[in-house]
Amino acid sequence: CGSETAGMVKNVYLHSCVFYGTRVGFRFKTRRNRGGGISDILYENVRLIDMREAFTWDLLGSEMYVGKLAQRNPPLDITPLTPTVKNITIRNFIVESADRLISVHGIPEIPCSNVLIENGMVRTNRIFKAMEDIDGLTLRDLDIHATDNNINIDDGRNITFDKVKFFVPRHELNLNIKGNKAGNIIMTDGTERRALKPGVNALP
Q1: Which of 35, 83, 109, 174 could covalently link to 75 via disulfide, CB atoms 3.0 to 4.6 Å apart?
Q2: Residues paired with residue 112 on neighbouring β-strands, in sequence order
Q3: pLDDT tens digit sequence for 84-93
Q4: By the 8 A CB rule, do 119 and 94 touch?
């Protein structure tokens, strides 16, 4: 979806597909000053095989193409041309093999929001390459088998792991959390909730 989003990419439904050997499975892409955005996306019943990365939010771009607009900080003023990325659901999926599961490079002045990823089986090397500027992400009913246990979060907040089973080295997650806005990162089994803290978190 994108990177041209001026007219708003919205109300997209994709289902019952197999993606094999693509660089990225699902990519959401825009840039500052593109306007519009991406909203109300539903992907379900999909299988991803041999991905470099399964799910990518690439919302800033590189300085090579957009100059200083690609810099995260300082956040810029919100204008009518600041794109909004929200209301994305990915469910009922299998990631058979990937190098990375998710990376998010959001726009700090309007973080991407209301993302739900649920009911999936995953085999990946890395889990979160980066989780920058997202406000509202729920991962629910997932089995994640990974060879690396690092999760990198920078100004990501309101992130919930709901009935997510991690099969990772030493049965521990190592959270690298930074940014003044980062917080409210929760793990729950549906009844008990506990906050995840920077550093090593032993899994239940």
Answers
A1: 109
A2: 134
A3: 999 999 999 9
A4: no
